[in-house]
Task: structure prediction
Amino acid sequence: MDLQIEYFNDGTAFHEIDPLSINPENLIDFSIYEKQSCGTQGFRFRCLLVDSHSIPRQRLMELLRFWKKVYIHKKQLKIYNEYLNNNLAYFLKHDEIDIVKKTETLIDLSTDVVKECFKTNFSITKDFKKSIDNVQRLLAQAIEFISDINSLNGIADLIGHDYETHLHSIKVGWLMATFINANRELFGVQRGPELKGLLLQAAVAGFLHDIGKIKIPQNILGKKGKLDNLEYIIIQCHTAYSASILFDTGLSKFSMQAILYHHENEDGSGYPSGLGCEQIPLIAKVCHIVDVFDALTSKRHYKESKTPFEALKIMIGENPYLDTLKKFEQEAVENKKTPLTAIVRDDYDIKLRRLREKEIIEEEAKKRVEVRMKLRDKGMSHCFNKELLKRFIHTINQSESFELSGVL
Ligand SMILES: [Fe+2]
Result:
């Protein structure tokens, strides 16, 4: 690419990068600039480095430490992002880069690869497999970082944000890896490639667990306000959709179990299969805990976010209205045909009457959903494995960023 040695620009053509993100072991093929204020002309961007081949490695290391802020031309942003992707493990291991910057960079790169998967045309298998490969490639470099308990300090800053499927998926994968690493004995692995493989499969599952939502109509997924019973049932299809989309991609059985069963409840009241505690795979139980924790602590258009303390109190709380709650859940399943009963094809009077009936039915359905949501917030312990939930609380409590004293 033809770039100049010097530019006068208002700054919009350039992008600031961290000089420490450059790995002296791996030569760069983009140019680095410094920014100087230039009065009325805006800024002057002067090229510091065109070709890292021409500088001895030691000298380059010194310069990278010396430069505080450097810039790249936006025309080369794609090349830089690719470079960062290929050198992510180096970046995340760098002692002099703070955890906030590492987390931000990792979230940015992860968002790109997750978004790519979510928007791939699934009918073109080759493209979709490539997107899945990109997720795995990124996670292979990040797995040591995200499974380290210290990385929780970074993820704690992302708690309480607006719910957004991509960010949620990344946090679920991240927290699953941290949890499993801290509780690896439950999975019968201790160290080495076997542990790394397990952590990777868990993180991949977390990143992709909700990919089936791509098949849920947008007017249901992004609905402002409460879902009615039918919409609730349709949303529940996303676990099976996720599994079917990923069926042929070569993901391990371990990952697929987490994806398909991450909404199964310990008492058999979950979906898609209503499995009981004995039947739910361990990895799916972990995914379920992490998923609900992140959903409760995220802000939605219809509810404020809960603090980690409040969320975990709900998750460990016995629900005093469990029987009523289960009745509502059952009704939701039985009423899935409600709107269909109101299809009108008769004469005008009957049509009006039926429309009115439909209105009443939908109004009632909405009320039931509202009550159901409120009741659910009174306690969710029936959904989770108690021992695992306790371990999850102990695990995230090891990070001073979560204030959890007194939850248990
Ligand atoms: Fe889900």
Notes: The pocket of fe (ii) ion is lined by residues 209-210, 238, 262-263, 291 (CB under 6 Å). The chain has 18 helices and five strands. The domain at 87-318+379-397 is CATH 1.10.3210.10 (Hypothetical protein af1432). The CA atoms of residues 120 and 220 lie 21 Å apart.
